[in-house]
Amino acid sequence: MISSSTIILDKQALTHNWNFLRSYFGKEIAISAVIKGNAYGHGIEEYLPLAEACGVNHFSVYNSGEAHRANEVKSSTSTIMIMGAMDAEDILWAVENGIEFFVFDLHRLEAAIYAAMRCGKKALVHIEVETGMYRSGFDAEQLPEVIRKLQQHSDQVRFRGLCMHFAGAENISNYVRLQHQKHVFKRVYRKFRQAGMEPETVHTCCSAAAIRFPDMRYDMLRIGIMQYGFWPSPEIMIEYRNKIHREDKVPDNTMPLQRIIRWESKVMSVKHVPAGAFVGYGYSFLAQKHMKIAVVPVGYAHGFSRSLSNSGFVLIGGQRAPVIGIVNMNCVAVDVTALERITTGDEVVLIGRQGHQEISVASFGEMTNLLNYELLTRLPSHIPRLVEG
Ligand SMILES: *Cc1c(COP(=O)(O)O)cnc(C)c1O
């Protein structure tokens, strides 16, 4: 046994999701697949070729470490874009390898120009502008200087994109802030055009913004969570359904988004516990009756959060088995008293379907959908990923 659990990626579900995204947003709009955070826990090395098989040819990562990994496995016709952190030496590497990157300060713009001069290739830059998120992006007063540099150094830099990021598009309570960001971006875009600087692409939308703001879609979307089969938040799913309804589009009977990840393990041991005994560390779980428990060799070291202690559940024999006691570093105990036949080696599902039961990532955390992002990306890269279908 190489590992105590396995993550399985469903190729059919992924194909379904990409077909949905393309038909909903239209073929004219390009989609960059956001694969930061180890492809939201799915595994960059396993996920990227699968996405390519679905016709995806643009991938967004956050840092150059992820870009190196993606660059190792991508085909020659795919492009990588770095949206965040890069060290000085990464810039030369990116320029040499045709990797696109966000530029949000003059220091990086100058480094890009310098790298282009050194290696004789053009830097492929996406100018990120500050519109009110205050994470990264050029301030308005820096833009004349940016435009001047792009014009002066058109032999060294290609103006691949103009972009921004919304400060929480999945949540309606951010409405005022997001409206302001839209205005600021449109004004900045106008400024660039007035200076005769038309970017090759304009992109502003993550998943939630792409659903919510059709006027901000421009040429390209940066879609993360939806390609993996999750809505950014329940309210975005409702907004999608309302839009379909208003536009009189006939909704497909199948779910528009399907989860592609499945996480499974096996029962490590089965034990009988007498009434009145405590299970696991300390006194957190008292058996009130005679119980049968199964120990599953997955714990918080594998991304099965400690907060699921005495509250999460897994699937065994097609039934829900509640977590009892504290989640340990490498294992967890679950109640299988109600299950007649259960033995060592039986399949345990931590995320996914078994029989008629299903554990979505959200209910694995028993919290809101928003935490899907965190729970997925916490799945450690050492768990093997397999592809199915
Ligand atoms: C993470 C990220 C995205 C994708 O967000 P989703 O909500 O997963 O679609 C897009 N753009 C930037 C800059 C990001 O950091």
Characterization of this structure:
The chain is of the alpha/beta class and 389 residues long. It contains twelve helices and 18 strands. The strands form two sheets. Strands 1, 10, 11, 12, 13, 14, 15, 16, 17 and 18 form a ten-stranded mixed β-sheet that branches. Strand 16 and strand 17 form a beta hairpin. Helix 3 (44-53) crosses helix 4 and helix 5 (88-96) packs across helix 6 (106-119). The relative contact order is 0.14. Pyridoxal-5'-phosphate binds at residues 34, 36, 83, 165, 206-208, 222-225, 232. Pyridoxal-5'-phosphate (PLP) binds next to helix 9 and strand 9.
Secondary structure: elements and pairs:
Layout: E1 5-10, H1 11-25, E2 30-34, H2 36-40, H3 44-53, E3 58-61, H4 64-73, E4 79-82, H5 88-96, E5 100-103, H6 106-119, E6 123-128, H7 143-152, E7 157-163, H8 175-194, E8 201-205, H9 207-212, E9 220-223, H10 234-246, E10 261-266, E11 269-273, E12 291-296, E13 313-316, E14 319-324, E15 332-335, E16 347-354, E17 357-359, H11 361-365, H12 372-377, E18 385-388
Parallel strand pairs: 1-18, 2-3, 2-9, 3-4, 4-5, 5-6, 6-7, 7-8, 8-9
Antiparallel strand pairs: 1-10, 10-16, 11-12, 12-15, 13-14, 13-16, 14-15, 16-17
Helix pairs in contact: 3-4, 5-6
Residues 34, 36, 83, 165, 206-208, 222-225, 232 line the site of pyridoxal-5'-phosphate.
